[in-house]
Structure prediction request, 643 residues.
Amino acid sequence: MKNDMTFFTSKEFEDKFRYNGDDLGVLCTKTKTVFKVWSPFAERIELCLYKTGTSKEWQRKEMQPEEKGVWKQEYPESLHGMYYDFLVWSQGKAVRTADPYAIGCSCNGDRSMVVDLKLTNPPGFEEDTPPQKEKEQIIYELHIKDFSFDKESGIPEKYRGKYKAFTVFNTNGSYLTCMSYLKELGITHVHLLPFFDYGSVNESGDEKQYNWGYDPLNFNVPEGSYATDTVDGTVRIRECKEMIQAMHKNGIRVVMDVVYNHTYRHDSFLQRMVPGYYYRYMEDGSLSNGSACGNDIAAGRAMVDNYILHSVLYWAREYHIDGFRFDLMGLLTVELMNQIRRSLDKEFGIGEKIMYGEPWRADESPMEDGTIAALKENACYLDEGIGIFSDDTRDAIKGHVFYEEEPGFVNGGIGLEPLILHAVTGWKDGGSIFCPKSCAQIMNYVSAHDNFTLWDKLVLSMYKNNDFKTKYPDVLAANKLAAFIYFTSQGNLFLQAGEEFGRTKFGEGNSYCSAPEINMLQWHQTIEFADLVEYYKGLIRLRKKLPGLYDKSALAVSRIIEKDIHKDGVVSFQLDNRSDNENDRWDRLLIVYNAAKEDYMVTVPKGKWEVLADGSQTNICKAVDKEIQAKAQSGMLLGRKVE
Ligand code: CA
Prediction:
C-alpha cells in the first residue's frame, strides 16, 4: 500500500482509482442484492453475512474486483433484513469492517444491514413533500432528546426523547408543547442536531445517557438511540422518516446537522476499508486535529469529496431533508461546498435545499494543496447560497461566548454602536474581516447549542451570579432587545430552541454530555415566560412581511439609509421597505435600538408613521406624532404608511 499523501491527490491516483459511480454500498430490491465497496489497495475482500445483528456468520463470499478499486458481489434475490460486514485482506492480514456506505446497521452500528429502502417508508412517505417556502426562513435549532424528554411535554413515555415524539400532535395538556407549540410559534425550519448514527451513546443502554452527537459512526444511517427499537435496524429508518414526514405535515422544513469533518474514532470503517486515505496527517505521521476531536477528514481528495457529496444527496433524496448545516465547515473546502450547492440545486431546484455552516475550525489543519478552506474570510469564494454563522453579530449583540462576564451591546457593553450598525447590513458594508456576496450568506443568531444559553449569558454578565431561575426584569428586557436586533438585521435568522422562553442550562456552558435534565426543554417555562414567547412570535410574524428586512439580494444593503449613532447605547437607521407587492402598508421603516438605561426621545421623520413594535409588544399598529419615546433597554420599529 502506498501511504504517501501526495499520491492520494496525484493524477496517477485519480486516473487509476477515482470512482464516480453512485452505487457504492448495498442496493437491495425484490429481485437482487448488490454489494459494492471501494478499496483500491486491498488484496482480497470477503463479504460476511449474518441473519441478525448479533448472530454467528451465516455465509461468506469472495468479493470480485472491478475497475477503479471497486469490489462487487451480487445475489439474485432480496437479502433485506440480513446483516453484513467485510474482511479486508492486506499483506496477509484481515481487518474486519462494517460498510462505510451502509444505509442500515445493527445496534451500536458495528454491523451493516441490507435494507430494501422501499420497505422502510411509512404510509404516505412517497407523496411527502415539504411545505411551501415562505418569504423568510426562521431556523429553530433543536436536539431530538431535548424536545420531549421533559415529562411536562405530555408525550407518552415510550416516545419521550425519540423520533416518534414528533408524530404526536395533540399532547392533551393544558398548554401547547412539542409539535403543536412549534407550529404555533411560526418558525419555518427545524434544524436538528446530528441524528446520523453516532458513537457516544450506548444504544442498548438506558435513557440517562445523553450526547449532542457530534461523533459520527455511520454517516448514512439514523442514530439508534432515538428509535423505539435498536435491535431491528429498519425501525430507526422508518421512525426517522416518520419524524420528517410529521414536520412537513405541520408546515415545517427539516435541516440536518452534518459532521463530515471528523469521525468518532480514527479507527473508523473508512479507515479500515482504505487505511490512510480519508484522514489528514502531519509531517511526522501523527493525525492532524483541526476538529479538536482527534482527527480530521481529508476533504479535498477526490473520493473523500465523493463520499461527502453522496451522503448529502442520499439524505436529501431518501429522507427528504430540506437543508444541511455543516459542522466546522472551515475544515471542508470551498470547492466541495460549492459542488454540493450545485448538485442540490440541479436536482431539487435552486435554493430549494438550504446550506449553511460554521466558517471556522478548532485548529489549523493541513489542507490539500490548491484548495481553499471554507472559512469566514473566504466567504467571497463560497456560493451565495451557502450561509455562514455570524459570530460577529452574535458577539456584538450579547458579548463574547468564551468570557462569560464580557457584555455586548444589550447588556452593558461600551463602544459597540458602529459594530451594531454594520451587523444590521449582514456585514455587507464592512466592519469585519470578510465581505459576503450578500446578506443571504449571513446567519444571524445570538444563541446555539454551543456555549451559554442566551438567558444564562445575560444573567452571568449582568448579575454575575448563578441565579438562573429569577425572572429579572432587566435581563428579560435585554433578551427582548437582543432578539429585536437580530430580527431587524438583514440576513437569515437562527435561534436555539427555548431562547424564546428564557431557556437555562443552569450556567452549564458546554452541555454536550450533561444529563438530559440539564439539556431538555422545560416546557413549563413557556408559561412562565409567556410574554417573551409572544414577543418572539410577533417578531417572526413581522419579519415575514417586511421586504426591507427579508430581502436577501446583493442590493438589500442599499435599502439601509440614515444610519445614526445618537448617543452611547442608542442607534437608529431607516430602511426602504418597498417591494413589488402593491398591498404593502409601509414604504419605509425606522428602527431604533436603545440599550441605554434611560428612555430616549426620538424625532419622527416626515410622513404618517405607525409603531409596529417596541420593547414590550410586537403586534401593534399605532399612529405616532412628531416624537416618540424609545424606552430604556428596548427596540422600536416604526413603519411609514404608503400615501
Ligand atoms: Ca449510535
User: Anything to note?
Assistant: The radius of gyration is 26 Å.
